[in-house]
Design a protein that fits this description.
Blueprint: H1 4-7, E1 8-17, E2 30-31, E3 35-44, E4 51-59, E5 68-70, E6 72-78, E7 88-90, E8 95-96, E9 103-110, E10 120-129, E11 135-144
Antiparallel strand pairs: 1-11, 2-10, 3-9, 3-11, 4-5, 4-8, 4-10, 6-7, 6-9
Length: 156
């Protein structure tokens, strides 16, 4: 059976935090060598005025060597999924989140569009309005070159 978990690899981008954008965090670098597409989900909960500029970086290794900001596509939706935007092109300068929280921002990065020799990708959230936003970042590597094996149920 071909299930979702066999076709994606889930990676933590930035752990949940009540003031996620404080200190302008950059998440871990994820290699797109094993997949063709990376979806970065920024899930914002509580927050009224806090905002951040989200940039995507490409580098030659998982420590960020030679990192450079790259263009990407994104779309936004409210938490219950009843209002979803079209895909929007963002330049290498990124885009600024909306105030108010309670939204999901989906960022799409295609391996074929990465700079030559830079298969590692991360997200940087640069706080632009200093107010707490409860948020987390999860990365989904999809269109895997080598699908994951089906997980085994635990035995008691």
């Amino acid at each position: 059976m071909n299930t979702l978990v066999e076709n994606i690899a889930v990676v933590s981008g930035l752990a949940p935090d009540v003031d996620r954008y404080n200190t302008n965090p950059t998440g871990d670098y994820v290699s797109l060598a094993g997949g063709r597409e990376l979806t970065i989900l920024v899930v914002e909960g509580t927050g009224t005025t806090g905002r951040a500029t989200l940039t995507v970086n490409a580098a030659s290794d998982n420590s960020g060597t030679g990192a450079e900001a790259i263009p990407y596509e994104y779309r936004t939706q409210n938490l219950d999924g009843t209002s979803i935007s079209d895909w929007i092109a963002a330049t290498a300068s990124g885009f600024q989140t909306a105030a108010g929280g309670d939204q999901v921002i989906a960022i799409r990065v295609l391996a074929e569009r990465l700079p030559e020799g830079k298969p590692y990708v991360s997200l940087t959230a640069t706080e632009s309005v200093d107010a707490p936003v409860d948020a987390a970042v999860v990365m989904l590597l999809s269109n895997l070159r080598y699908p994951q094996e089906k997980p085994t149920a635990p035995t008691s």
